[in-house]
Write a structure and sequence with these properties.
Structural class: mainly alpha
Largest sheet: 3 strands, antiparallel
Number of helices: 6
Order of helices and strands: EEHEHHHHH
Oligomer: single chain
Helix content: 55-70%
Length: 196
């Protein structure tokens, strides 16, 4: 594809993020000597207006709702056949892949550094999903079970939810609490570390 026909602008970026036009070289022009001081190739997202913090929080919330719905659907399907912790690991892994792409557009970093941002994202999200969520699920399932009791009591009072089994309410209550904890963790780390 010719550089003039790309659907997005491509530029190269110096350490101070000064944007300059990119000169594309054919493979025959590519030399290791040219790479020694090479500038990092970055893809700049289509020019979107800068987002204020309240707007970022709103968009993060929308992505979070979609991501959480995906996570909960997979989690509930899997917990029919496998225990909660392995089901959570599978469902959150799928949700993590969706979240990386969607949150790129929420936080709109100045440069697209896929390997660097993906590495940061995976580390931050892995701690959130595989440590924080699983600890919260374990604690609210085995140690501090009061939130599950409150949720079961509340659903018994709601006529529409009275058909839900205690097991269904229990597994979704602990998952909801775990998701809330990881939500706060993720927003702060994405905003100030991953997508900077």
């Amino acid at each position: 594809m010719c550089p003039d026909t790309l659907p997005f602008p491509i530029r190269r970026c110096k350490a101070k993020r000064k944007r300059e036009p990119l000169t594309l070289h054919t493979p025959s022009q590519h030399t290791p000597a040219a790479d020694a001081g090479a500038l990092r190739l970055v893809m700049i997202s289509p020019e979107l207006p800068a987002q204020s913090l309240p707007w970022q929080i709103a968009l993060f919330g929308l992505v979070g709702v979609a991501n959480t719905a995906l996570d909960f659907v997979i989690y509930n399907l899997l917990t029919r056949k496998i225990p909660r912790i392995p089901a959570n690991i599978c469902s959150t892994s799928v949700a993590m892949a969706f979240s990386f792409t969607a949150n790129f557009f929420v936080f709109q970093p100045h440069t697209f550094d896929a390997p660097g941002q993906a590495t940061k994202f995976i580390i931050v999200t892995a701690v959130s999903l595989y440590v924080i969520q699983n600890v919260v699920i374990y604690l609210t399932t085995n140690v501090w079970m009061q939130p599950v009791r409150w949720a079961n009591s509340a659903t018994q009072k709601i006529q529409l939810a009275s058909e839900w089994s205690e097991a269904f309410v229990s597994k979704n209550t602990v998952k909801l609490l775990a998701t809330g904890c990881s939500l706060v963790w993720n927003f702060l780390w994405y905003r100030f570390y991953v997508y900077v």
